[in-house]
């Protein structure tokens, strides 16, 4: 495949970093972004070391700040060229009973998990349309396809971003641009470790027991590896006939 300029958000650790490593290994130039300068620079250096010869760039950006989104794209364009592959991975989760979910918690989930990807997609599309080629992959969640208790705001935001993906895919299907979502289950990442800690604190169970409880919720009986999610992202990049899909990487928890 022709070497492309790739931008991966939320790439200092977990799924985002695994995606950046996979794309660099495939021969692409990769820009990683995250809010933490220390984190994103360390991740970029690690990706560069593992894939010498490819251009790797670390950019600090808070995607809930519109000006940061514009600056992020401008920095990537100046250093590497127009973004040809956008992987909108940055996101977060929080748990609370619906009746205890505050307006602030709700707004934060919508802003980070839905509005920020929308801004990135909107900013990336013009150059892709001009070139007649582009790939957009949003890392959503399996709860984009089902309701789940105690995470109403997170679930709503992920349902929304899957709707964004489907609408964009339909709108630009004839323009050489594909738009897809990856819908992971519980992945072995720092974010899941935070979920495990929260379950442990609420239930009184030990961390190992709480972690195993999450693993048992997936038919394969284990957490998904970040590299398995990265492979699904790469599949969407190389296959131009896959469009408007929400691809589950959840061990069979949701069959569709």
Oligomer: single chain
Count of individual helical segments? 8
Report the principal-axis shape: globular
Strand content: 5-15%
Classified in CATH, the superfamily of the largest domain is NAD(P)-binding Rossmann-like Domain
User: Which consecutive residue ranges, at least 5 long each, have pLDDT under 50?
Assistant: none
Structural class: alpha/beta
CATH topology heading of the largest domain: Rossmann fold
| Proportion of residues in helical segments | 40-55%
Query: Order of strands side by side in the largest beta sheet?
Result: 3-2-1-4-5-6-7
Q: Please give the largest β-sheet.
A: 7 strands, parallel
What would you report as the Rg, rounded to the nearest angstrom? 18 Å
Gross CATH architecture of the largest domain: 3-Layer(aba) Sandwich
Q: State the distance separating the first and last CA atoms.
A: 29 Å
- Order of SSEs, N→C? EHEHEHEHEHEHHHE
CATH class of the largest domain: Alpha Beta
Mean pLDDT: 94
Overall strand count? 7
Compute the number of structural domains.
2
What are the defining features of this structure?
Rossmann fold; 256 residues; 2 domains; single chain; alpha/beta; 7-stranded parallel beta sheet; 8 helices; 7 strands; globular
């Amino acid at each position: 495949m022709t070497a492309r300029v790739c931008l991966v958000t939320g790439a200092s650790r977990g799924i985002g970093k695994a995606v950046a490593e996979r794309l660099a290994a495939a021969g692409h130039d990769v820009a990683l972004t995250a809010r933490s300068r220390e984190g994103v620079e360390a991740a970029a250096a690690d990706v560069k070391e593992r894939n010498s010869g490819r251009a790797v760039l670390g950019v600090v950006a808070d995607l809930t700040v519109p000006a940061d989104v514009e600056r992020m794209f401008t920095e990537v364009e100046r250093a590497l060229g127009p973004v040809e592959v956008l992987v909108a991975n940055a996101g977060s989760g929080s748990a609370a009973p619906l009746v205890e979910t505050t307006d602030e918690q709700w707004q934060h989930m919508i802003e980070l998990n839905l509005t920020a990807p929308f801004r990135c997609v909107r900013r990336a599309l013009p150059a892709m349309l001009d070139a007649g080629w582009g790939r957009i992959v949003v890392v959503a969640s399996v709860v984009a396809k089902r309701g789940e208790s105690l995470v109403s705001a997170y679930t709503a935001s992920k349902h929304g971003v899957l709707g964004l993906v489907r609408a964009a895919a339909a709108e630009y299907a004839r323009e050489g641009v594909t738009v897809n979502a990856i819908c992971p289950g519980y992945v072995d990442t720092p974010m899941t470790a935070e979920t495990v800690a929260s379950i442990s604190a609420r239930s009184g169970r030990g961390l190992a027991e709480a972690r195993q409880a999450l693993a048992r919720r997936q038919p394969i009986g284990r957490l998904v590896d970040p590299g398995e999610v990265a492979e699904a992202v790469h599949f969407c990049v190389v296959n131009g006939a896959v469009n408007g899909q929400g691809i589950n990487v959840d061990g069979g928890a949701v069959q569709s």
